[in-house]
Amino acid sequence: MDQQGSYQIKTITSHVETEIKRLKAQVDLFWDKELKHYIEYGLRDGIRIVELGSGPGFITEKVLDKLPEAYITAVEIDPFLVEYAQKYLSKKNKNRYEVLEKSIMDTGLAENMFDFAIIRLVLEHLPDPVNAVREVYRILKPGGRAVFVDNDFNMHIMTHPHVPELSELYDAYCQSRFAEGGNPRIGRELPGILKEGGFSKVDFEVISAHSEIVGEEIFLKSEGMSIPAKLVCDGFLSSKVLANISVGWRNMFKSKKHAILRQLYMAVGEKLS
Ligand SMILES: C[S@@+](CC[C@H](N)C(=O)[O-])C[C@H]1O[C@@H](n2cnc3c(N)ncnc32)[C@H](O)[C@@H]1O
């Protein structure tokens, strides 16, 4: 089991570009709600910010757009995504960031450097999340805060009308991620993990996106078929079950009052002064 655990962009799907688009849609799906919480927890202009497990750079981009005086250090283990983020962010002509090819487990950054840290959809993929949290704690300044955002796949997409077949998809997804050392049900454990990692004043929020509010298009973009198709390839899901899921999903859309709901779990902690 390596430090990347259960998220490697080149193996989690068969189509890297599709996965990058899915990650972007997943940022857009929750951003307005997430931002409110980041601000409430201390994100503001002019401070030193670190994003760990920054992937293609879409959260870094949003923060740079929002805070014109902020400087962000983005830390990402995958060299392909480091290069992608560097190119993507440079197109935006912003010189207020750096992208470092490092692991969250051992960033090589000096201690007490940052005021604010964002770690989004990363802990759920790591074999040793507590030591990742300890490393984030180490690089924060006293009084600094870190926000960890993750899924809990027992409470993933819910629909009206209910699509019972979706639970088979999420069970298969969980088996696959657990087999690679991740924990796709980590959402409920976040407050305990933050405390074990050294944080004080820990708080917890559930962030929701509802199709009546954000529209259904964005849900379709943030889900997609490339991960389910890979689960079939890897033997975690049968093609027959996937076909049933597609039928159930299409039938749900035929209902006039259909709705889609998804949640993310957010925990914040402070490094005591
Ligand atoms: C699901 S993606 C989330 C990307 C981004 N945070 C977002 O919300 O769009 C998980 C990211 O964590 C990165 N990652 C996995 N293990 C890591 C580690 N040990 N150190 C740093 N990044 C890691 C992956 O390469 C990937 O970019």
Automatic annotation (TrEMBL):
Reply yes or no: does the keyword Nuclease apply: no
One matching Pfam family: Methyltransf_11
Q: Which SUPFAM superfamilies match?
A: S-adenosyl-L-methionine-dependent methyltransferases
InterPro entries xrefs:
Methyltransf_11 (IPR013216), Methyltransf_Superfamily (IPR050508), rRNA_Ade_Mease_Trfase_CS (IPR020596), SAM-dependent_MTases_sf (IPR029063)
Which positions fall inside the Methyltransferase type domain? 51-148
Top-level taxon: Bacteria
Question: What GO molecular function terms would the record report?
Answer: rRNA (adenine-N6,N6-)-dimethyltransferase activity
CDD domains (alphabetical): AdoMet_MTases (cd02440)
For this protein, the record's PROSITE patterns field holds: RRNA_A_DIMETH (PS01131)
Cite the entry's keywords alphabetically: Methyltransferase, Transferase
* Keyword Transferase annotated: yes
Stated name of the protein: Methyltransferase type 11
Species per Swiss-Prot/TrEMBL record: Pelosinus fermentans B4
